[in-house]
Amino acid sequence: MDEPRVLLAGAFRAAVAQADPARAVEPHLPAAPPGRVVVVGAGKAAAAMAAAVEEAYGAQGVRVEGVVVTRYGHGAPTQRVRVLEAGHPVPDAAGVRASEEILDVVAGAGRDDHVVVVVSGGGSALLCAPADGLTLADKRALTEALLRSGATIDEMNTVRRHLSRVKGGRLAAAAAPATVTALVISDVVGDDLATIASGVSVADPTTFGDALAVLARYGIESDAAVRVLSEGAAGEREETPKPGDPRLARCRTLLVATNQTSLEAAAAHVRAAGYDTAILSSSVVGEAREVGAIHAAIALQAWRFGQPLRAPCAFLSGGETTVTVRGDGRGGRNSEGALALALALPPGAPVSALFADTDGIDGSEDHAGAFVTPELLRTIDRAAARRSLDRNDSYGVFAAADHLLVTGPTRTNVNDLRIVLVHEAEEG
Which of 17, 35, 180, 235 has the fewest C-beta atoms under 10 angstroms from its C-beta? Predict the structure, then answer.
């Protein structure tokens, strides 16, 4: 069998390759229109997706133009589609300018044009044209408060849709009467099209009142946001497009890559190395440290009792956890989950693991995630590591042990990947 870290890193690469826009986009492109193909969109994979669209239509001699926005450092070379970069996860002025340019581009599309919207994780922060009466500073402060609150991505996007001029179906509505096809790489648990990048191309099932309820649930104070949402709830602002809105009649939205398909690719890679495998779920949510502890419990059951699989075996899961920030350390949801797993395992456990984000960036740090190995379990200073976990400083623990996974931006994003290997006892 492969050395555990090599095997885990290879499985991660297989998962990312499955969601590579060069592979995922082309089979879903619409037929060439009589007019132009206008490419717009946002997300960590937006530049790579735009390049894939250009390449496919360029071979047919179709006129392609447009503009997309991606996170700083996630750009890719294109010929006719402009690639802009902006802040993520906290929006910035570059994101506002990019959003306004994208709105201008789709507003100029005609009935003979086909607007191809490329959407991936990160689009909510990158498409950040604030609603009237809201400033960028207001949105930045609110985003930071939501990120620290432990709110789910669904809840965050409910708020974002109602404080934006582009989210919640508004981008597709602005493109009417052009035909619109949105191609989506999902970073959302359950692959809800209204939630991925805050649903720029689909009808919004939530309301201003729902958004207000999220702020109240987490005790988030923002005078400007509450004022805008309250005006909307009182009928003083136009709601987001709802099902049946005629502006969305010529729009379709398609999933082209998901967490599940990437999990299957990772599982196949591990299985080929001789491990019996099980995908636990692609829909895991909750506090990262609690998810890590649960994965440790599953690994211990396999090691001690051969249930539900006998070693050598592997358990995989996906989804997106959250971190309620209480300390001042460095980390991310994956490294925090991995540290919790390590602390829940005894020093002699024959277990290795990788918790990582498929976009190559764990939260806002420079690593994709972190490894756990039998060596780490034997040598880690557990008291110090627990103090680090309390400070949300998982990064420091894994950096000191040289157990970080650093890949750089992968230019795709189908959420988190967790792989836990249980070796035969003599390997531990």
Answer: 235
pLDDT surpassing 50 at residue 22: yes
Supply the Cα-derived Rg of the chain in whole angstroms.
Answer: 22
The model's pTM: 0.84
**Residues 6+ away with beta carbon under 8 Å from 271:** 277, 314
pLDDT, tens digit (0-9, with 9 covering 90-100), for 86-136: 999 889 999 999 999 999 999 999 999 999 999 998 898 899 999 999 999
d(CA 413, CA 19): 7
| DSSP code of residue 172 | H
CATH number, span 21-129+164-204+240-257: 3.40.50.10180
pLDDT for residue 428 is more than 70: no
Read off the DSSP letter of residue 322.
Answer: B
State the chain's mean pLDDT as an integer.
Answer: 94
Phi, psi (5° rounding) for residue 32? -60, 135
pLDDT of residue 147: 85
Give the 3-state secondary structure of residue 200.
Answer: coil
Whole-number pLDDT of residue 123:
92
**The pLDDT value given to residue 2:** 59
Average pLDDT of 166-170?
A: 95
- Within 13 A of 395's CA, how many CA atoms are on the CB side? 18
- Cβ contacts of residue 104 below 8 Å, gap of 6+? none
CATH of domain 260-427: 3.40.1480.10
Q: Is 406 helix (H, G, I), strand (E, B) or coil?
A: coil
Residue 154 confidence class, pLDDT cut points 50, 70, 90: confident
Angstrom CA distances, 320 to 152, 179, 182, 211, stand at: 9, 33, 23, 21
CB proximity list for 33: less than 8 A, separation 6 or greater: 62, 112, 113, 114, 179
Round to whole Å and give the CA distance between 37 and 110.
Answer: 11
Domain-by-domain residue ranges, the chain?
A: 21-129+164-204+240-257, 260-427
Handedness of CA 27, 30, 36, 40 (dihedral sign): negative
- Tell me which amino acid residue 243 is: P
Strands annotated E in 266-350:
276-284, 313-319
d(CA 159, CA 150): 14
CA–CA separation, 109 and 178 (whole Å): 6
For residue 234, give the amino acid letter.
A
